[in-house]
Design brief:
heterodimer; A: 169 residues; alpha+beta; Glutaredoxin; 4-stranded mixed sheet; 36% helix; globular; B: 72 residues; mainly alpha
Chain lengths: 169, 72
């Protein structure tokens, strides 16, 4: 092997090492399975497998992420609007310590499922690239929408996707 | 001899890379903590800004926008 080939192999190895984001969950993929404790000690654990057959919005959030905090009350409204049609919302909190997330929930009570993922195990499974990121999962467990960030007008995009998925499209 | 040099270069680069780590999206809360700021004392920071403004007739540009969550 020539020196040029050795160098090419070395830099190819570095490129492969730093291209881990290609493993991120994308639209059309199957949702990774996770099983996390609830952020509330007296609530049962939350597993993705137990939500099979439902339309699920999985959202990753943290108390230090301002757009996350503006999105959650709007998700609560969506949950009440569509829960009778089969919508479930799972807002995974990645605060470490989880008390930071609980402090936010004291002021802003939310009615959907909130698992705690302080070590980022589920976030690692999804290869979350930015906060917040939400994933809309259809009843078959297929990712229909991946949405990163939260700006004005984004809630309409997410609601439209929810309505479409609930309708079976 | 040249192979030894190349090998030495690769070992040096690899040893330098071993100190690199990526702060993942869900770990950026650590960067938002007060102790991670360039100047953890806000009073001292404001004083330094004032001195800089008085001397240079300009201000700003000493911090980044956003909360570090990689979302905006």
């Amino acid at each position: 092997m020539t020196i040029k080939q050795q160098l090419q192999a070395f830099f190819s190895l570095i490129l492969v090492t730093f291209s881990a984001n290609s493993l991120a969950v994308e639209e059309g993929d199957s949702v990774p399975d996770f099983d996390l404790p609830s952020i509330h000690q007296d609530h049962p654990a939350i597993a993705m497998a137990a939500l099979e057959g439902k339309t699920v919005l999985v959202d990753f959030w943290a108390s230090w992420c301002a757009p996350c905090l503006s999105s959650l009350p709007l998700y609560n409204d969506l949950y009440h609007k569509y829960k009778d049609q089969g919508l479930e919302i799972v807002a995974i909190n990645v605060d470490n310590p989880i008390e930071d997330g609980l402090d936010f929930l004291l002021d802003t009570p939310l009615d959907f499922l909130i698992p705690a993922d302080p070590d980022g195990d589920a976030a690692e499974l999804f290869e979350v690239y930015g906060m917040p990121t939400s994933y809309l999962i259809d009843p078959n467990g297929t990712v229909k929408l991946v949405h990163m960030g939260f700006r004005n007008g984004d809630i309409e995009i997410i609601e439209e996707a929810i309505v479409s998925t609930l309708a079976g499209n | 001899m040249q192979t030894v040099r190349i090998f030495g270069l690769l070992v040096t680069i690899l040893s330098l890379l071993s100190s690199c780590t990526e702060v993942r999206a869900w770990e950026r809360g650590y960067l938002a903590k007060d102790e991670m700021a360039w100047e953890s004392d806000s009073l001292e920071s404001a004083l330094n800004d004032h001195i800089f403004f008085s001397k240079e007739a300009s201000s700003g540009g000493n911090s980044a926008a956003g909360g570090g969550c990689g979302c905006n």
